[in-house]
Amino acid sequence: MARVISQSLPIVTALVRxxxxxxxARQRAQIIARAxxxxxxxxxxxxxxxxxxxxNAFDYAGGGKVEFIAxxxxxxxxxxxxxxxGPGIVDLDLIxxxxxxxxxxxxxxxxxxxxLMDEFAIDTRIxxxxxxxxxxxxxxxxxxxxxxxVASLTDALSRRPIDPLEEAQHYNQEILRTLDxxxxxxxxxxxANEAKDVFLAAVSHELRxxxxxxxGWLQMLEGATVGKDLHAEGxxxxxxxxxxxxxxxDDVLEAARAHTGKLELELASVDLQDVxxxxxxxxxxxxxxxxxxxxxxxxxxxxxxxGDATRLQQIIGNLVSNAIKFTPANGTxxxxxxxxxxxxxxxxSDTGEGITEELLPHVFERFRQGANSRRHGGLGLGLAxxxxxxxxxxxxxxxxxxxxxxxxxFTIRFPLSR
Length: 418
Known about the structure:
- By secondary structure, this protein is an alpha+beta fold.
- It has three domains: about 160 residues, Heat Shock Protein 90 (2-Layer Sandwich), CATH 3.30.565; about 70 residues, Helix Hairpins (Orthogonal Bundle); about 150 residues, Heat Shock Protein 90 (2-Layer Sandwich), CATH 3.30.565.
- It contains eleven helices and twelve strands.
- The chain has a five-stranded antiparallel β-sheet with strand order 1-2-3-5-4. A five-stranded mixed β-sheet has the order 7-9-10-12-11, covered by helices on one side. It has a two-stranded antiparallel sheet with strand order 6-8.
- A hairpin with a 5-residue loop joins strand 2 and strand 3.
- Helix 1 packs antiparallel against helix 2.
- The N terminus is likely disordered.
């Protein structure tokens, strides 16, 4: 069954003859994984998969052999081959299907190990034994695996005795770290669930508000005697409410498209100076209505990037609209832009309500909205959509605020067009 591995570099072979040997195999797996540049999480995955299959070899075949091999081909990988000369596995197909329920736990080790590795292959022959191959791709930033690297690792392993007690302590520490991580993830899931409930309540409320206005005015206009002025006022109110509702629905659909990866860009060369000019003209009435000062800190230098002009206007326009919404009368909003050898940077800052320390790390997440945001209306999806669009352009977005009442500054960086 075993495929031929070109450029394979054997690291070490360990025999499994006693119960402590499969613990030693786990320890070797962790040491090798760390030396080859795997993350701590992948170290644990590899060590767990190796120890489970090695323990199966000891428990059900009386022992076996564990071979650690570096695959120097691209993409680089760690290959672990675990073989035994036991009775073979009678119910292998049933085990691999996930339908087998073993009273002694044999199937659990096999199916669990398969989920932990990038590739899993097993060949069993009744009365002759079993061979399992586990393969994990090295991280892209891992250094090249060369014969010198492997020789150094092999030498280090040969000089380091395997201590089962030390490995048991490491194992316990991993369990504690895993439990701590599970607790953190569980807390995050609970917070996300609560935020989603709040979001759904906000959607219901925000959609109901314009609909109530539309239905109310329609009912009034259906009356037998409606004056010309009242009719005109009603039609204007209905149109305004319909626009609000359409915008809310567009936000929900945009967020859904972003979440499913269906937002697409029409890329071309774009000068962000033109985008800022357009936004500057568009927001003047809103700024005047709210008595807010609007400043511009650009020097007219071309800000050429490769992007979608409509989406770029959506990105910067959303940030400016938010700043207007949260900045009180006589406050100031500033739009800045600059360029260096690698990036075009655009910033939108204000002297408005600011962002609390608790909310700041979550402002670009869906379903997250501060108390002030809910007071101003809307669904709180705008910044999540903006963040996604910035990433689609290969850019980054960051936010800074010194807290409630102290304003906020959003900074976007796009790769400079060559």
